[in-house]
Amino acid sequence: MTLKEALTKSNEEMATLRATLEEKAKSSGLNAYIGFESLGEGVPILIKDNIQVTGWSVTAGSKILQGYIAPYNATVIDNLKSKGMMAFGRANMDEFAMGSTTESSFYGATLNPHGNNRVPGGSSGGSAAAVAGGIAIAALGSDTGGSIRQPAAYCGVVGMKPTYGRVSRFGLGAYASSLDQIGPIAQNVEDAAILYDAIKGHDDKDSTSADFEIEDIANHLNSDVKLTIAVIDSYVAQADADIQKAFAYTVAKLEDAGHTIVHKELSNTKYDIATYYVLATAEAATNLARYDGVRYGKRAASKNTEELFYNTRSEGFGDEVKRRIMLGNFVLSSGYYDAYYVKAQKVRHLIRDEFNAIFEEADLILSPVAPAVAPKVGASQDPLEMYKSDMYTIAINLAGLPAISLPVASNDEGMPVGLQLIAKAFNEKTLFNGAMSMEKVVNYNNN
Ligand code: GLN
């Protein structure tokens, strides 16, 4: 059942659906859900474990937050309620949204429903796997450097990252505050637009929230638009054969449908990963300083205050989170601050300016989401290799742009390939129209 269909059903039918989803989720073996709480009546939307829901456990997939209960709703949760939807179930995720595979969760790894012992991607892997596996109608994830779009691509579903500032971050557990956005993961583009409409909008409780409203999109979607779509050939050439093949197929289909393809260059892409991992870790180190054993969740045994901080953080955080805290504190430390942090901020501006220059001449950019299909469970042991797999998603967060990932093809093993469309800031309308058109012409679900 799609989200659009579910919204026409009664509360009784939705209550039955919730029971069915729970039962199916438990027997699926995917480990996509880590809880089955439910918040009132309405169409059930699965919620990533870093979004606050009153009275629910919220742990961001971490041991350090075990036992912590959210005292309030994130704004997106209140917004859902006003649109006939409601929070149902907790989605598994990489610890503190740091990762690309959903293997770093305290609750164990989530599996990709397409089988072959593959990861679902991350960090919103539970959300994407559940939607793809038919055990959630739609879900909320968060995207700091690709965590909605990449798992959506790996699992063959639609994932959308809104423009920075379009969706309130109030009640989202902070990873890197200047990059984080909450967004929808859904079965198709229209459902993603419905969910995006529900959660978007200005919020006084988030000082980075854009203070102007824009019209709802889902009711006015138009898949017959003719757009100018830019492709970055040198960018695409770095992906593997599966992705390149799917990319060429999609470009041909878009041209057949009457869109104009233009070829552009981005000269700073080689700096994307370094820039992101300097800025994201700097912000993460700062944001995660609050987990000290005093205010939230777990408290380790200790004899004095210093030991309390030390033991709580040593026992509570996993390896990847510790690695990022160390890296973040390093780039912020005196002597290195100018060389790394300040320089990365400057490069971030250059990256954004380059995207904006392309949007002078094109409505959208078409790009891969990841350089390959989902890797096997256990194959991503080298952190640097994992960071490199974020090469196509992180620049969009650095530039604050909206983007949507949708499935276009499968490789020979049946693993999905997703591609993303990227739009100018606050131009979600063109983004969704382009995605509707692309969804129609690639015809993924019937291939
Ligand atoms: N894989 C990226 C990281 O680990 C992105 C994560 C995200 O978007 N939350 O930082």
Strand content: 5-15%
Number of strands: 11
Q: First CA to last CA: what distance?
A: 20 Å
- Please give the order of strands in the largest beta sheet: 1-3-2-4-6-5-10-11-9-7-8
Strand count, sense and closure of the main sheet?
A: 11 strands, mixed
| Rg from alpha-carbon coordinates | 20 Å
* Count of individual domains: 1
Bound compounds: glutamine
**Can you identify the CATH class?**
Alpha Beta
Large-scale geometry: globular
Level-2 CATH architecture: Alpha-Beta Complex
The name of the CATH superfamily reads: Amidase signature (AS) domain
What does this structure look like?
- The protein is of the alpha/beta class and 447 residues long.
- The protein has a single domain (3-266, 353-446), classed as Alpha-Beta Complex (Amidase signature (AS) enzymes).
- It contains 15 helices and 11 strands.
- The chain has helices at residues 3-6, 11-28, 75-81, 125-132, 149-155, 189-199, 233-236, 241-256, 272-287, 305-316, 319-332, 337-358, 383-388, 394-399, 428-442; strands at 33-38, 43-48, 85-91, 138-143, 158-161, 181-186, 228-232, 260-264, 364-368, 403-410, 416-423.
- It has an 11-stranded mixed β-sheet with strand order 1-3-2-4-6-5-10-11-9-7-8, with helices on both faces.
- Helix 4 (125-132) runs parallel beside helix 5 (149-155) and helix 9 crosses helix 12 (337-358).
- The longest helix has 22 residues, at 337-358.
- The chain is globular.
- The mean pLDDT is 97.
- Glutamine binds at residues 97-100, 123, 143-147, 175, 280, 390.
